[in-house]
Design brief:
It contains one helix and 35 strands. It is mainly beta. It has two domains: about 5-395, 6 Propeller (Neuraminidase), CATH 2.120.10.30; about 405-485, Immunoglobulins (Immunoglobulin-like, Sandwich).
């Protein structure tokens, strides 16, 4: 079934890395046209190229919001709860976007800076929205990290420490309410990369790890390209494991690494040229992203299989890790029905009841699989655009801003009222208020919410109008008063 929505209207930790350098070296590196790697820089997912003629949505009540149209190709029963979280880029405008299961916007936050890794996390027990924002060139970001509360108000901004620029690949809030972020730093003719653990909200560096201090350049599968800095490692994820060690992914070494949190030493490698674990059938991966512990014995990751292409399709993998036997076994491999091969980006999220949610990175698709690997939900947006990651997450938003209203005269004594409230998740109905003035307005109609923007036709000679959002517990908020246009 194909559905398409188009609207008309912690204790201080010792750093274990090379000595920090100033952030200027990264800015110099970004000036190069191509990063030294095995593929053209653009394939990493930079924002230089944009989608051609993307379909955008338009709303009468919020003409300032024009998110990309999203098509839902598959929607079956039994989906995991929650909304879809993406941050479309290579499209104007860019910005964090929350969608419902019909592909309709719930919240859109257009911004001039690029955004990646948009999702819900917990900070001091409360759900918050987080993402990286900044400028990206050839798969390396220079920016900062933001935290928003359920009223869509910014409550914290984090920046990388030690003079480094905050990279776009990771922003994870740990159970100890610290942040894990990635950085890139040019060292002579080589691009170093690594991660920091930061205190929130101060940004104090608690731990820093550098690839060049621990991983020889000879482990790389990338190739040098002229005088450009050689991006031999290319970190793209860092997560805290169940035993307190760090798990990181080096894209250009085709390997995952477990890192000792006190010394920075590599505990073991999985994949690549020097794997400490034997890879069972179907477990080999290449140019991967988003490695996460899912239990004490399972790891998930997104196996790009390109670029250059070494596989026919990208896969989301769930692996059984036996550290005693030093073996890895394949539990599940998820592939898209269209055999998507993504040369950059991508992620996999494990949901309840064995479901998995996959963002296909360079390809603008997102998919939910059930416990048997069947596709139960699948959607996409503009061809040529992409989202670094995609998630399915529960969220309750109550904006501090007021609902929005637009009113158009469509005939003699007839008007069309348009009601919306960007980010509100609990609105069930809209009540229209009308009158000859703001003092004399009274309720004239109640209509069910039908999406981001609800159209309500009225036969009315009133001069002014307003809308009131109604939730399960009653009135939520009221818009400003407007006249019909």
């Amino acid at each position: 079934m194909r559905l398409s929505f188009v609207s008309g209207t912690c204790a201080r930790r010792r750093a274990a890395s090379l000595p920090p350098t100033t952030g200027g070296s990264l800015r110099k590196a970004l000036a190069f046209a191509v990063i030294g790697c095995a593929i053209p820089g653009a394939a990493y997912g930079d924002s230089v190229h944009t989608a051609e003629d993307p379909e955008l949505l338009h709303f009468v009540s919020r003409p300032d919001l024009t998110p990309p149209a999203v098509t839902i190709d598959v929607k079956r029963k039994g989906l995991a709860p929650g909304y879809v979280f993406i941050a479309p880029k290579k499209i104007e405008p860019e910005g964090p976007l929350i969608l419902d299961n019909r592909g309709r916007p719930v919240w859109f936050h257009p911004q001039t800076l690029g955004a990646t890794d948009f999702r819900v996390q917990r900070y001091h027990g409360r759900k918050v929205l987080t993402w990286w924002q900044g400028h990206s060139a050839f798969g390396i970001g220079s920016g900062h990290y933001v935290i928003y509360n359920s009223a869509y108000r910014r409550i914290a901004v984090l920046r990388a420490g030690n003079g480094l620029a905050g990279d776009e690949h990771e922003f994870t809030i740990t159970p100890r309410n610290t942040a894990l972020i990635t950085f890139y730093d040019q060292r002579g003719d080589t691009m170093d990369s690594g991660f920091q653990e930061l205190a929130i909200p101060s940004g104090r560096v608690l731990f820093q790890w550098s690839a060049l201090a621990h991983v020889p350049v000879s482990e790389s599968y990338a190739q040098r390209s002229g005088p450009q800095p050689f991006d031999y490692f290319h970190i793209n994820s860092v997560a805290l494991g169940p035993d307190g060690k760090y798990l990181i992914s080096g894209r250009n070494t085709h390997a995952l690494y477990e890192i000792n949190p006190r010394t920075g030493a590599i505990v073991w490698r999985l994949g690549g040229k020097l794997s400490d674990l034997a890879l069972g059938p179907g477990t080999a991966f290449n140019w991967q992203h988003d490695a996460r512990w899912r239990s004490r014995t399972t790891i998930s990751l997104f196996d790009n299989g390109a670029n250059p292409a070494v596989e026919k399709q990208s896969r989301a993998l769930l692996l059984r890790i036996d550290l005693r036997a030093r073996q890895v076994r394949l539990l599940h491999a998820y592939v898209h029905p269209e055999d998507l091969l993504s040369g950059s980006q991508g992620n996999v999220q494990m949901l309840r009841k064995g479901h998995a949610f996959v963002g296909w990175g360079q390809n603008p698709w997102f998919t939910e699989f059930d416990e048997d690997g069947n596709v139960v939900f699948d959607g996409h947006f503009a061809k040529g655009a992409d989202s670094y990651r995609a998630y399915r997450l529960t969220w309750h938003g109550r904006p501090r801003s007021r609902p929005a209203i637009g009113v158009q005269t469509i005939g003699l004594g007839r008007v069309m009222v348009y009601a919306s409230w960007n980010g509100a998740t609990d609105v069930r109905q809209w009540q229209v208020l009308a009158g000859s003035s703001s003092v004399t307005m009274k309720p004239v109609r109640i209509a069910a919410r039908t999406g981001f923007e609800t159209k309500i036709e009225l036969k009315s000679g009133a001069k002014v109008f307003a809308v009131k959002a109604l939730g399960a517990s009653g009135a939520e908020a009221t818009s400003k008063t407007v006249r019909a246009s």
